[in-house]
Specification:
It comes from Paenibacillus hodogayensis. This is HAD family hydrolase. InterPro entries: HAD-like_sf, HAD-SF_hydro_IA, HAD_2, HAD_sf, PGP-like_dom2, Pyrimidine_5'-ntase_YjjG. One of its GO terms (molecular function) is hydrolase activity. By secondary structure, this protein is of the alpha/beta class. The protein folds into two domains: 4-15 and 105-230, Rossmann fold (3-Layer(aba) Sandwich); 17-101, DNA polymerase, domain 1 (Orthogonal Bundle), CATH 1.10.150. It is 49% helix and 12% strand. The protein contains eleven helices and six strands. It has helices at residues 16-31, 41-57, 59-62, 66-80, 88-101, 109-116, 130-139, 152-155, 162-172, 186-196, 226-230; strands at residues 4-7, 121-126, 148-151, 179-183, 199-203, 218-220. Helix 7 links the parallel strand 2 (121-126) and strand 3. Helix 1 packs across helix 5 (88-101), helix 4 packs across helix 5 (88-101) and helix 9 (162-172) packs across helix 10 (186-196). The radius of gyration is 19 Å and the shape is elongated.
Length: 233
């Protein structure tokens, strides 16, 4: 019986892809992107996605705020699509406000948390941005369920580094042998849990084949199946 369950947030409890798409479509509607001549969302995403990922990946090394990441991403996207780049700041602000207010759950996640609440301690360990992670969970009505809420930009450590997990263990006041961490990323979550000596449950939402060298303690393809793991089935 685990005394605490730690969760990754995006694409584990929350459907990040749906949150992102919903926020962007609302931003596009508000700023009239769909009225552009020959505009298609497919072309926009094909352009924006790689640019945004590049800035996001380099944000720590370059000391970029999330607002700079978004503004630069929109700016470069507008330039590449031959649109007016002066709208980048407004687009970034609108998108961020929508993103922080939207909470779409992975199927069964909210119900699972409700069932677990009052049993083992619950915590979040996320590589996201504190403002969005806290506002989104509050919007979804689950923020009060967690006994620890650890976000990388607030503590200065990022998964898969061990220190971010050590902070969670300290806040939960449990031994690493008493904790299960649940996440969808082999690079950040699996490797992080292994480095911290914590049991790991891989939420294999994309049903990928695992290499022999990768050996999480548990694997589930639906987040609701965590019930069976905790019940020992």
């Amino acid at each position: 019986m685990y005394k605490a369950i730690l969760f990754d947030l995006d694409n584990t409890l929350l459907d990040y892809d749906r949150c992102e798409a919903d926020s962007m479509h609302r931003t596009g509607l508000q700023h009239g992107l769909e009225q552009w001549e020959q505009f298609t969302w497919e072309r926009f995403w094909e352009t924006f996605g790689p640019i945004n990922w590049g800035y996001w990946s380099d944000r720590v090394a370059r000391k970029l705020s999330i607002h700079q990441v978004l503004e630069y991403s929109f700016h470069d996207t507008l330039v590449k699509l031959d649109r007016d780049r002066t709208h980048s700041t407004a687009l970034a602000r609108t998108y961020w406000e929508h993103f922080c207010a939207i909470c779409h759950f992975e199927t069964g996640a909210k119900e699972l948390l409700g069932e677990l609440h009052g049993g083992p301690k619950l915590g979040i360990v996320s590589n996201g941005i504190g403002e969005s992670q806290r506002r989104r969970t509050a919007s979804g009505g689950i923020d009060h369920l967690f006994d620890a809420f650890i976000v990388s930009d607030e503590v200065g450590h990022w998964k898969p580094s061990r220190p971010i997990f050590e902070i969670a263990l300290q806040e939960l006041d449990v031994d690493r042998s008493e904790v299960l961490f649940v996440g969808d990323s082999l690079q950040d979550d699996y490797e992080g849990a292994k480095a911290a000596g914590i049991d790991f449950c891989f939420y294999n939402r994309r049903k990928i084949a695992l290499e022999e060298r990768i050996a999480p303690r548990y694997v589930v393809e639906r987040i609701s199946d965590l019930r069976e793991v905790l019940d020992g089935r």
